[in-house]
Amino acid sequence: MLLGFKNLLFILDLPLHIIYHRKKPIMNENKSYSKYIRFGIPAGIGFILILTLSIVDAKGLMVPVMNQEPFTYHIMDIKEVFAVEKGKDEEIIEERGGLFSQEDLEELLQRTQLEEGKHTGIGKGKNLIVIQVEALQNFVIDLFYDGQEITPNLNRLIKEKGSLYFDNYYQQLGRGNTSDAEFVTNNSLYPSMEDPTYVQYEQNTFYGLPWILRDNGYTAWVFHGYEKDFWNRDKAYTNQGFQRFISQDDFKLVETIGFGITDREFFKQSIEYLKELDSIDDKPFYAFMITLTSHTPFKMPEKYHYLNIREEHEGTILGDYLQSIHYVDKALGEFLEDLKKAGLYDNSVIAIYGDHFAITGYNPQGVELMSEFLNMEYDINEMFRVPLIIHVPDVEINETISRIGSQLDFLPTILNIMGYKNEKGIMFGRDLLNYQGKNFVAAQIYVFKGTFIDDDTLFNMSSDGLFENSQAYNRKTREPIELEKVKARYEYIVSEINKSNYVLKKDLIKLLMENQGSVDLEDLKGKNIPDDKYIIRCYNNPLEELSKNYEEGHRLMAVKLKFIVEEEVVLEGGYEIKDLAHWMENHEDAYLLLKTDEWNKGIFLKVKDEYPDIKDRLIVEQTKFDQYYRLSNKAFKNIFFNATKGNYTNEEILDFLKRNPLAGVILNEEYLDNSFVKELKDLEISIYLDGVDENVDIDQYENLDGFLLKQ
After folding, report:
1. What is the pTM of this model?
2. pLDDT tens digit sequence for 69-109
3. How many CA atoms lie within 13 A of 694 on its CB side?
4. Is the previous residue joined to 70 through a cis bond, with omega within 30 degrees of 0?
5. Biggest CA pair distance of the chain
6. DSSP-assigned states of every residue in 102-120
7. Cβ neighbours of residue 356 under 8 Å, at least 6 residues apart?
8. Catalytic positions, please?
9. 3-state class (DSSP) for residue 227
10. What whole-number distance in Å separates Cα of residue 660 and Cα of residue 655?
11. Which of 549, 530, 528 is nearest to 538 (CA)?
12. Are 137 and 354 in contact, with CB atoms under 8 Å apart?
C-alpha cells in the first residue's frame, strides 16, 4: 500500500511548514544573492546527492532504496541520468573482478525473492504433478500429419480452461541429458559440463522444488520406470529433497518397450501410488514423473503403429518418432482420465514438458528430413524447443505465452503459480509470467559454450573457440547480425553460467543455509591442485625423478607422454603408463601435469580410460582452444592452457578463459603484461611461467603462482 504509516511520516511536517510560511513575510523576490550562493548551494546539493547515490549503489542497496515508496521513481530517474549507458537487461558484465563476487551473490539472492504478480498463488494448496516426457519436441504440438492429429490429448489440454502453454520453451542440458533436465527443472541451476550433475554433485546441498514444497507441508515423491541407479538417481534424489523413489523395482513389468516398462503401464500403475501419496497425513503432494517409451530409437511394436506413415517416411527416424510420440500422447490422455476417476485431478496442478530433442543435429539425414518436413531450417532454434503446459483446473485462464524461456525458468514460474517463495536457495531462472526483462536460453550441449537464443538473436559460438569466427543471426529472419552488437550479451550469458558453476563447485547453497544467508566469499578461495612454487619436469628418467622430487617436498610435477607402435602410450624417457599409475597409487597426494608433443591430444584420454581412478590428479595441457571440449567431456577436471605456442592474442586468451575457467595457464615472458596478468588473476586461474632457470631471482615475478623449471 502506498500510504502506509511509515510513508506518512515523510509528509507529517507539511502542516507545520504551511503555518510557518503564512506567519512569516514572503521574502523579497527581487533580492539578489552572490554568485557563491546562487551556484555554490545547488552545486553542493548536487554533489552530495551524487555522492550519496554512488555510495548506495556501491553497497548494493540501490534496489532496496528503490523499493521504498513514495520516492521509487525519483531514485530510478536520478540513477538513469547519472549511470553510464549499459543497454538493456544486464547485457554488460559489471567490472567486479573474479568469476563470482559478493555483489553477484547479493544480486542472485535479490533475484530469488520473487514478487507477487500475474497468476500468483492460483495453485496454492493443491497437489503438484510434474511430468517430464522423454524426447517431446514442440513441433508435434497441434501437428496434423496427412489429416492425423499427432498429439490430440496435449492439444486438448492446451485449449482447456486453466491452461498455460509456453511455446518458446527450450531444453537446458549438460552431460547428464535426461537427468540434467530433471535437475535444472527442480533447482533452476545450470547443469555441470564435466560429468552428469547427479554424479558430480551427489553430495551437494540443494534447495529446489521438492525442499521448498516440503517446507510448505507437502510430501515429495519421484517416479521413473527404469533402473533406480541409472544416472545415479537413487543416491542423488535424497539431497534433491525427494522422500521416496518409485523405480522399476516397484512396478510390474507386464509390458515393456525399448528400455523398460511402457508409459501406459507406468501411468496406470502409478495411480495406486498417487492414491497412497495423497493419503499421507492429509498433506498435499508433489509427484515428479519421468516417462520412458519415447526414447530413441523410437521403435514401436506393430500393434502400436496407430498412424498411417507415408512411404518416404516409413522406417525413418521421423516416421518412427511420430508413431512413438503419438503413443505417449495416448498414454497421457488415459492418465489424465484416471486422475479424474481417482478424485485427484481437480485438486492438482499438472505440468507437462519435454526433456530434450528427439532428432539430433548429429544426424545429417535426420536434419535434412526435418528441414524438408517442417519447411524451415532445422537448427538449434527448432531442435532445442520443447513444450511446457501448466494446467490449473477450474481457473478462468487460457493463455499461450511466447516469451523465451527454458527449463531453468520452470522453478520460479511454478513457485509463482503455487504461491510459495524460495527462502533459502538460489535461482538463476526467471518467472516467465512476470519477469519484464529480456530473457535468453544459454545452450551448452551439442553446441559450444557461449551459444545463446533470445527473442531477437541466434548466436552460435565458433568451434575453434574464437568469438570473431562465430555467427549471429536475427532469430526471425535469419539475417546476419554484426558480432559486436551481440558481444556484451554473449559475455553476460557466459558469466551467468560461470556463476552457477561456482555455486555448485563451492556447495554455496549449503553454506548459505548454515549461515542464515550470509557468506564471505573470501573464505571460499582456494585451489584444487597443490600450491607448489615449482613444477618440476621429470622427463629423462621419470619414475626416479618423480620419487626424488616427491621426497624433497614437491607435489606438482610434469611428465611427457608419447605414442609408440599401435598407439600405445608410454612416458618420455622410458616406462609404461601402468608404471606411472602404480607410482600415483603409492603417492596419493601427488599431482602430475601431463605434457606431449603429439598433435593428437587423445593421448590423454587413453590414459584416463585405462586408469580412471587417478584421472582427477592428472592435469592435462591443451595448446589450442578447440581441444577443450574433448578433454573436458566427462574426462579431466584439471586442465592447463599453454599459451607459449603464440597462437592467440591476449584478448583471445582472456575471452576463452572467461568462457572456460581452467585450473591454470602457462605463459612465457612475452605475455607478462601487467594488465593481462591482473585480469588472469581476477579469474582465479593459476599462472605459471615456462622456461625459468632454478637459479633465477623469482622475486621479480611476484604476480605469478609458480614456474616450470627448465630441463
Report:
1. 0.84
2. 333 334 434 443 343 334 344 433 444 446 789 999 999 99
3. 7
4. yes
5. 105
6. HHHHHHHHHHHSPPP-TTT
7. 135, 171, 173, 177, 178, 181, 384, 386
8. 178
9. coil
10. 9
11. 549
12. yes
